[in-house]
Every structure is written in structure tokens, then in C-alpha cells.
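Technical note accompanying the year-one report. For the benefit of new consortium partners, we illustrate the data format agreed upon in the data management plan: each record pairs a sequence with a C-alpha cell string. No post-processing was applied to the example shown here.
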Amino acid sequence: MSTYFPSGKGLADGRKWFVVDAKDKTVGRLATEVARILTGKNKPDWTPFLDMGDHVVVINARHAKFTGSKTDQKLYRHHTLYPGGLKEIGAKEMLEKHPERIVEFAVKGMLPKTKLGRAMAKKLKVYADGDHRHAAQKPEAIEL
């Protein structure tokens, strides 16, 4: 009796599409479940070095919430690569200007920092409001 071992062929054909509603969900808890789906760890045939995950569409990112005082204290930082170019933006301002980035950053931080992780991150689509443009893929709504 041999053990089943998935090959890399046909992985893209078998991918499913899921819709997750972020309304009134905690950002971190939502991000862990979405990252789990993107990596494919929710499947019985998960393999660490293959992209076994599915596509995830997150809607209503504007209505995701932080616990405690993270809304006031959390900072998102990036560097412009110029001297003195460290830029900081607070979570409250980020939620007003670019609410979809909050969920994207949280999920991408939970994915591998390799080529494989970048491929997984491409399967994530985040929208600030309730409408999305992936209806043709017939995504399944899942409750987290």
C-alpha cells in the first residue's frame, strides 16, 4: 500500500473560491482563518511545499474591528528608502483611507515570506464594501 502524494499538476484547476464577510469580525482572528484557507492547511492533502490553497474574497473590510485600544495605538510603518523616510500611519487613519489594506497586511503577515507565500497572497482579494467582481467564479460563502 502506497501513500498518496500530490503532484503539482492540476492544482490550479481544482481551486475553489470562497467569500468571507468581515463585518464585525476581529481582524486577527479573521486573518488566521483566511491564511489557513490560502495555504491549504484546511485540506487533508496539504503539502508544505505546494500551493494547495483556494481563492478567498473578503468583503466588508471597512467593518472589521480591532480589540482593545489597537485602533488608537497600532501603527503601520513603511520606509521610502530615502534617508529619514520612515513613514507611520495609525490604524484609525488606515481604516478611513484604505480599509482593505488592514486585512491584506494581517493575512500576508501570516503567510510564508517566500515565493510560495507571494503566490498564496495573490489568491486573496479584499474589498472595503459588500460588493465584489468575482461573481462569475461562483464563490461559496463561508462563516468563520
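Partners are asked to follow this layout when depositing records. The first helix runs from residue 27 to 39.
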